[in-house]
């Protein structure tokens, strides 16, 4: 497959677009972009140098690797029944044994999946604003062989980028009932 050669105006537009972009990871340190000016002799490059009628050249783009300080820190949501890092023994024991007081409860029985998600999202935002520490989300067992659709979707909702940082621990409310989850939320800072 033949590579397309960029004109000087396209190369200038590309340089302006990527001037402050740093790659997440690199395989190479230097990438070259071929440039063929598409205008006449009087046209000039963005740097103010004459482009020359038939001149071709290479624009070298130096890729800079990001330091660990610049990379955003993402906290994954804990899995159900798995102790998350940063959760002390006492809190984990109280949460997993059902001894922690529930500040609020959301019952998703009777909702379709989209409505249930919207209710769950509003509930989690309200939990953050109110400063609640432990909340319970009831999905019900569902009637399907693998459980209900809301029950299957809830773990995916917990791993969303706007929800996961709020959650410190997740357990089933009762060992015999897999249709309800207790969420230990991080303290508001």
TrEMBL record:
Residues 106-186 form the Smr domain. Pfam families: Smr (PF01713). Gene3D superfamilies: 3.30.1370.110. SUPFAM superfamilies: SMR domain-like. This is Smr/MutS family protein. It comes from Bombella dulcis.
């Amino acid at each position: 497959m033949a590579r397309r050669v960029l004109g000087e105006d396209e190369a200038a537009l590309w340089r302006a677009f990527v001037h402050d972009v740093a790659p997440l990871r690199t395989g190479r340190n230097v990438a070259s972009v071929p440039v063929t000016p598409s205008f006449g002799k009087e046209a000039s490059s963005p740097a103010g140098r004459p482009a020359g009628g038939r001149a071709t050249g290479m624009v070298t783009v130096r890729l800079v690797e990001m330091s660990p300080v610049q990379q955003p820190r993402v906290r994954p949501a804990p899995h159900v029944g798995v102790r998350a890092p940063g959760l002390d023994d006492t809190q984990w024991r109280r949460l997993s044994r059902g001894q922690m007081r529930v500040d609020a409860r959301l019952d998703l029985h009777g909702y379709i999946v989209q409505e249930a998600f919207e209710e769950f999202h509003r509930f989690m935002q309200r939990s953050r604003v109110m400063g609640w520490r432990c909340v319970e989300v009831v999905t019900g067992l569902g009637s399907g062989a693998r459980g209900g659709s809301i029950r299957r979707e809830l773990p995916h909702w917990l791993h969303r980028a706007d929800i996961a940082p709020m959650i410190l621990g997740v357990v089933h409310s009762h060992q015999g009932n897999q249709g309800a989850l207790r969420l230990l939320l991080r303290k508001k800072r």
